[in-house]
Amino acid sequence: NSEETTMANGPITKLGVSTTKDDEEILGAQGYQLLNADLNEGTGKNRVFLWYKKECGLRPVTRIQFSFLREMKDGLVDAGYELVNKDLNAGVGGDHIFLWYFYGNTEFDLPIVNIEVSKDAKEEPALLKDGWERLGCDLNRGAGGNYIYLWVKREKPSYICEITATTDFKSDKQKFDLGFTRVDENTNRGAGGNSIYLWYRRTTDKSKALTALNVSTDFQENVRLQNEGFKKVSVNLNAGTTGNDVYAWYLNEGCESQIKVNSARVHGCPCDVKENVTHRSRRPSSPTLGAFDGGWVITGPPIGLRLRSPILSRVRCTLYCDTLNPPINDLCYRTVASDQTAFVAFMHR
């Protein structure tokens, strides 16, 4: 009937996680729908599934976050996020990962109407082109197995309109209250230094969307980007390491603008840090597949060792974007297993 159709197309109102058969039976009996993708796939351990509920007349879920450190939880609790108290890495010995969701009412909160899971980078270009957003945390983080990411689809198309960064967890509540989403991966992972996280806000107004991003690694690049009209995110992405100061820059030229980029194509696709260098050999497939379908190109100079401590890490970092459609839709960070390269990645749609 029409009411069932409306609910099927409506927003998600609750989320759940099962780590046992008993959990599955309980959630099923409570009217939750199963997302049939094992979040522990490739580990040979417990089956872990996501569940969701769509209920007529209830508040929609607008944001989803993950925590894998105790310090990541405090801001989520204080901001009023709902915790699903089930470890997504249950039984596999990796990081203890927990899912949180939020009913937001800021202008940056857009109802989530569907969720999906990817288990291979080859799946990502099709999802990106179909309007899905990929969240920042590898749900097998620290456990080996497949690279598994949660994706969300919103009620309306949306774009990133603001980015920022933090070097500790003290301002997390304030950022959440202001409508920011945290990219749940430390860009200094494995390099020592501060715990640095990127944040963004979304808009449905394409004219407010960011249209270009870049990075600076020295004074000359700072001057050049400033002269080109870029605005600087005033947080050193290399804080706490012995490398150069590294800053992100962004540009908003309106919806008709064109992005100026370098022409060098790279073999990589959009996602976040997957693992430490010491764990790479356990991954069954390279996360670099699918790059050319995604249309990613380098927008800024390779950061090389400068984003991370040259003593603690050999990871190289590069900024990405897609020039086909200027408004920036997604923001994430990744490590490529084949050559120990890390990327801060931005997707345009």
From TrEMBL:
<dbReference type="GO" id="GO:0005737">
    <property type="term" value="C:cytoplasm"/>
</dbReference>
<feature type="domain" description="MABP">
    <location>
        <begin position="58"/>
        <end position="204"/>
    </location>
</feature>
<protein>
    <recommendedName>
        <fullName>MABP domain-containing protein</fullName>
    </recommendedName>
</protein>
<dbReference type="InterPro" id="IPR023341">
    <property type="entry name" value="MABP"/>
</dbReference>
